[in-house]
Amino acid sequence: MPKVDVNGIDLFYEIKGTGEPLLLIAGFLCDHAYWSLIMPLLISRYQVIRLDNRGIGRSSAPDSPYSIQQMANDVAALLDHIGIAQIHVAGHSMGGQIAQELALAYPQKVKSLMLLSSLAKGDERFNSLIETWGELPGHLDFKLYEKVVLPWIFTDAFYSIPGMIEQLIEFAINYPFRPTTHGLYHQSRAILSSDTTERLKDINCPTLVIVGKQDILTPVKFSQQLQQSIPNAELVVLNHGGHGFLIESPDAVVSVMFNFLGQLKPSNTISF
Q: Mind listing the UniProt keywords for this protein, alphabetically (predicted)?
């Protein structure tokens, strides 16, 4: 698995599939593996690039402040290294914040934008949660930390599946590239300091906003703000799934993504 030296850190990434390039940016507490359930479908049509943001996974986690703009610059440097001039970009949660900054700072690189369970700026409840989640790893063992976070990510229906939450927690605590305490802290502060509210009008690429109807972490109102502020953005609210709909409802998410991306094809494209 390759790494590239960008902006003073080692950035981990992987490339799979063939076709038009599609970049996936994960959110807080998550590395590239968070997209795993939708990868088989995505790579059947696209060349998919996934990365670990600074502070997580196999990328460097410097013990110094991060910003969302800085992480967007990391992504831009990665694209330059790979030699990709323009790309479809999908970001989940914090990854959607990074994707917004990428589209604002490097509009020539972003062919289309898909913002999943994301936001322009958090409200007081959201900010309080993220602040706490950034501090708790220094006080709780990782298993208990997961137990605190997961109820905000998954729905009642998902919790009712026997053994499902236990499996996720077991996977997390045995994952060989668990996040560092300081990496989570610095990512949380990057989220809290990010605000694209007044700049969303400057995003000029085709944009899709997706949110789960039962998302209690980044509720529908956050996605409505994105849709209303980004010119000609499209909003899709999925009836099933919450913030973790990439795990709860992967087929529904991919279907919406494919429908959006399919509409962007040139009118003279012939399908077989």
A: Hydrolase
Domains with residue ranges and CATH for the chain: 3-263 (3.40.50.1820)
Backbone angles phi, psi at 236, to 5 degrees: -125, 125
How many Cα atoms are found within 13 Å in the side-chain-facing hemisphere of 58? 14
Structure token digits, residue 268: 């003279």
272: which 2 tokens? 């077989």
Q: At what angle do helices 181-192 and 94-105 cross, to 10 degrees?
A: 60
CB environment 147-168: b (16+ within 10 A), e (fewer): eebbebbbbeebeeeeeebeeb
Distance CA 64, CA 55 (A): 10
Two tokens, residue 206: 């085709």
**CA–CA dist 196, 113 (Å, integer):** 15
Please tell me what DSSP assigns to residue 53.
Answer: P
The tokens 């479809």 sit on which residue? 88
pLDDT tens, residue by residue, 154-212:
999 999 999 999 999 999 999 999 999 999 999 999 999 999 999 999 999 999 999 99
CA gap 90, 87 in Å, rounded? 10
pLDDT tens across 101-147, in order? Answer: 999 999 999 999 999 999 999 999 999 999 999 999 999 999 999 99
